Structure formats: structure tokens, C-alpha cells
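Problem 12. The chain below contains 257 residues. Write out its predicted structure in C-alpha cell notation.
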Amino acid sequence: REYIFGPIYIRQFEELAKFYGYDKNKKLISPLSYMSVNNNYLNIYQSVPMSFVQIEKIVENLLNTFKRDDIIILGNLDEDQLMDFVKRKMNLQIKNRKCNSFSFNKGDLSNRDLVKKQLNADTNIIVVPSNDRSFVSRLLPILSSMEDTVFTVYGLNTWNMFDNLDYGDLVNLNVHIPSVFMNDGSELYSKFVDRFYKNYFSYPKKYAFSGYKQCLYFLSYEFNDLLNFQKFSNTSFYSNTFFDIIKYKNYERIVLE
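Solution.
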């Protein structure tokens, strides 16, 4: 069997899939993109979980952590599928609790009072199911400016790649997001860093350990617990379901147990 890792970007990866997507002797691994291929190829493995997979784990964590609190969903009108999916998941699991949802255009976010009107005065548990850099980077400063209000905000893995988010806002809002590329503090990670430094006299960059884990998972049965790939309804490819959720606290990124 042959394994092909990459290309990194989804458009390039889909070009590869057109040639090899139905070849049962090959496995095609998308290593970094959260976006999924469009056609029903048979041998595609997506290492970054689909947004819908992330949302399932987020909802589970949120409801286990905040058993009595009301939940608010703030969404982008341009990402209505993600918004609807969160609402369905919430409605399936919430009983005798309040869950309000509001969708905004990006232009609406210039109106601070409009956003504030949808929130509670003291405590807010909020899910923001958005992969849109512009939407997220406009919304978070508005929430963070409400200094007398306590927030816990849940987002998506793409927020790790948004370099225009203010770190202070992430801490103030107690942001929780999935993270596929986080240093997990494991013995495997320590050994990887040590070997990397001995070979290259420098420390590995952000995505190196994730690539290392993907290679171990696919090329050795000994490491089949590092990732977990599953098919989901209405998809033909396999999505990874094994990832951490991190939170920002005291200017550190902490992996939740």
C-alpha cells in the first residue's frame, strides 16, 4: 500500500484526488486543511477534524462543564450550516435549559449595542461556530470590551491560525478551542523534540509534531492510538476525531483533561 501526505492546501489536494481518489492501493492524507474534499473519493483521510466533528466534541465538553448555565450561540450569517448544526446538537441534549441563538452579518458587528443586547449582564457561555477570520476578529474585541461580564467562549480549530486575534481578548474571554497541533506534553513529544534538535540543531516548528504523529499512525501499527479516523453521514472520506480542547488562562494555553 502507498501513502501520500499532502498537498497542504485543499485545492491542490483535490487535484491529486482526481487522479488517485479511487485507487484502493493508495491512502491520501490531507495533513493540515480543515476544509474537506467535495467528491466521494474512497481513500481520503482528513487529519484536521471537520468543523462538524469539532462541534460535537465542543458541545459535549460544554454541557458537561456548565450543567445549569444558559447557552448562547453567536453565528455568522454566511456560515448558516455550522450555526444550524450547533443548534441541532444543543436541542438534542439540552432539557429544561435555555439556549438562544443569534446570527449577524459582518457589518452588524460595528454596532456594539446590537451585540450587547443579545447577551446576559453578568455571565455568558457562548459558542461561536465560525471559521471566518474577519467575523471572529471583529466579534471577540466587542465581547472583551464588556468588562463587567464574565465570559466563556467556545470556537473552532481555525482560530489557532488567526494571527490577528488579540491574546488579551482570548484570555479575558476564557476562550476554548480544539487544537490538533498543540504540544501535548507527552513523552512522545519530548523524544521527538530531542531527536529533532540532535539532527537539525534547531527546534521543530508548529506543524512538525503533527506530521510526525500522522506518519507514525499510518506507517506503524504500534501507534494506532495516536489518531482515530471515522466516516460520517453524507461523507465518503475519513475524518480524524482525536484532538484536544485547549483554553486560554493566565496567558497560557492549557489542554483540558
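Discussion. The mean pLDDT is 88. Students who got a different answer should revisit the alignment rule from Section 12.3.
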